[in-house]
Amino acid sequence: MTFRNGVLGGRASVKGFDVVATDGRAGRVSWATYAPSESYLVVTTGLLHRRHRVVPAGAVTSAGDGRVSVGMTRAEIARLPLLPHPQATVGDDTRQHMLNALERLAIWGPI
């Protein structure tokens, strides 16, 4: 789970960026970690009922102009693991759930 080379365009952070799925706006980056092999975004979705979903760095296809694009649909993002709040610790169970969800998509190579 690492961001692909160059995908962040030299940015140190994408916190606060809109997240754009393949079928439209999916939420906003409310937290991110950039540590090699442990990178992910926490995307906050929903207006009335906020949910914090863990999106692996490998799903990010580009970042720029206040937007992060991911190679997933909004429905696929909705099936990713939830966190109680954006800065919550991502444990081993959550990581495995996230990886299992991506494997079911059958579109990703090694993450």
The whole-angstrom Rg is: 12 Å
- Element string (H = helix, E = strand): EEEEEEHEH
Number of strands: 7
Describe the biggest sheet? Answer: 7 strands, mixed
Tally the helices.
2
* CATH homologous group name: Photosynthetic Reaction Center, subunit H, domain 2
Please tell me what the overall shape is. Answer: globular
Query: Span between N and C termini?
Result: 5 Å
Jot down its keywords.
111 residues, single chain, alpha+beta, Photosynthetic Reaction Center, Chain H, domain 2
What does this entry look like structurally?
The protein has a 7-stranded mixed sheet with strand order 5-6-1-2-3-4-7. It is an alpha+beta fold and 111 residues long. 17% of the residues lie in helices and 33% in strands.
Brief account:
The protein has helices spanning 74-78, 92-105, and strands at residues 18-21, 24-33, 40-45, 51-56, 60-64, 67-70, 82-83.
Give the secondary structure arrangement, pairings included.
Layout: E1 18-21, E2 24-33, E3 40-45, E4 51-56, E5 60-64, E6 67-70, H1 74-78, E7 82-83, H2 92-105
Parallel strand pairs: 1-6
Antiparallel strand pairs: 1-2, 2-3, 3-4, 4-7, 5-6
